[in-house]
Amino acid sequence: MSKVPQIPLNNGVRMPQIGFGVWQVPDNEAERVVSSALDAGYRSIDTAAAYENEEGTGKAIAASGLPRAELFVTTKLWNSASETWTRDNVLREFDASLARLSLDYLDLYLVHWPRPVRDDYLDILRAFDEINKSGRARAIGVSNFKPPHLRRVIDETGIVPAVNQIELHPYLQQAETRAFHAEHDIVTEAWSPLGQGKGLLEDPVIAGLARKYGRTPAQIVLRWHLQTGNVAIPKSVNPTRIRENIDIFGFELDADDLASVAGLNSGTRLGPDPDAFDWQ
Fold this sequence. Notes:
- It contains ten helices and ten strands.
- It is of the alpha/beta class.
- The strands form two sheets. An eight-stranded parallel β-sheet has the order 3-4-5-6-7-8-9-10.
- Helix 1 (27-40) packs across helix 9, helix 3 crosses helix 4 (121-134) and helix 7 packs across helix 8 (217-228).
- The longest helix has 15 residues, at 87-101.
- The chain is globular and about 55 Å long.
- The mean pLDDT is 95.
């Protein structure tokens, strides 16, 4: 059995606190990479229609022989800018993702971006709620939503997303969004939890803690996520790093070291600003 702690969502579904992300993994490599992750003990797999690797991910899940109930599978609606999303469009795309994954249900279905300029995320989430109530998605949530987007969802639809997956790492700690999540019982899930390796893993504070604990810099950052209460979905295609990134349960950062990592926050965003981002 996996050692990964389970985080309760606001509807009672439980989600592994460490998962495996497959962003930028080509579909023809996804089966191998996801199989390595499952062999290493990951039981939560995060993909998206936009990643174009749901088929390879589904093949790895099928080949693993693991009971479906032991797995937590997330994918995301690719709410592209080519159209305004209606209920029927959402249901069609949900069915397409399930078919590509060769699954009967999802554990978590996310709206990939708010795209406020399109003003259709409320209708998307109403369709998601229908999918959730049908039992074909055990939980529903959002990705890249800021507090004003979340507040509008809650106020105008009554839907409280179970999860908000956001860019989050020591250089971008998103305190305001995390506080909103805590107030409304929304789980914070970090994408690019290692900052895409762009300087964070070489930061003197992280490097120093790696030496202190005899761990890799990535393990230090992922342990910080764990102790901060975030769900994290590190991604690698390297089998050694895949195993290292889940091997974070034999040590704990002390309070001073947690504070040192917290002190790295600079508000540096690697991805686009959700208020402005739109597929064209």
